[in-house]
Amino acid sequence: MYCGIDVAKRSLVVGLTDKKKTKTQTNNPKGIAHLLDYLQRFEIALVTLEATGGLELPVAKALAHAGFRVLVANPLKAAQYARSQSMTKTDEKDAFNLARYGRDLDLNGEAEKMLFVPLTEQQEQLEALVVRRRQLVDMRVAELNRLQQIHESQQDSVRQHIEMLNTLIARLDSDIDDHNQHFNEKAELIAEIKGVGKNCVAVLMSSLPELGKLSNKRIASLVGVIPHTQQSGQWTGKSFCHGGRAIVRNALYMAVLSAVRFEPVFKAFYERLVARGKAKKIALTACMRKLLTIINALVKRNEKWDATRHLSTVSVG
């Protein structure tokens, strides 16, 4: 039996492939506990949820810790599957469609490599610090832009806010350094890659628990740095990257901006791509993918970064 759960802010609508009616629970700790009790009555092969901006995480973690196989589906792919089944859209239909979608993936052998991996307590704490830092940095950028436009009578207020944000960001940087110590084994493998700073390491350690466990192609797809081909008949469109984990992608982008200037391996790779006529943005995306796959391989093999091994094999992928 396969289970699909349509997650909303206040409710969890549960659909089972062998049942004609859904069951609804409240989306809170008490409702999740009732959900676990209900599902444990059956032999559930896989529980499928849709990524909904974090609302799905508490129930996904509870299910995984209770021993269920859990898949958090890409919302775009889940929606495309649902439309292929029916044009009607209700919470009940969505729950059943998620159950069937998970079943099809499982029968095709694709679900196993997509299973939800709950974060450890250290990863959750580090992720919270990284996310909060990103929020404060965005606020500081907004205030710096505002400073150029605001009336002079309010400029002191903006400067005071910027100073306060600087203090809070510095405090978070210190906390991130402290929490990074829990991941020293992995961090030391990639710390010598020029451009990969402490914040990039923190993002990778907290927001990409699959690092070192998946193939290079799969990890690149998961993050969203692999292009999707657009072709039909005689027509060929531009390939593009879509979806993935934005927080990891942003961290890789900032790392690559530095790496293509100071790390010989990536500088040579980037310059060869540009010399062949690739747009700079496309070349940077290719460097992001190369950086991610190198980091993934280093963690998987438990090897430290050695630039000399890559300099002689730099190629355009």
Automatic annotation (TrEMBL):
InterPro entries: Transp_IS110-like_N (IPR002525), Transpos_IS110 (IPR047650), Transposase_20 (IPR003346). Residues 3-150 form the Transposase IS110-like N-terminal domain. Residues 187-271 form the Transposase IS116/IS110/IS902 C-terminal domain. It holds the Pfam family DEDD_Tnp_IS110. This is IS110 family transposase.
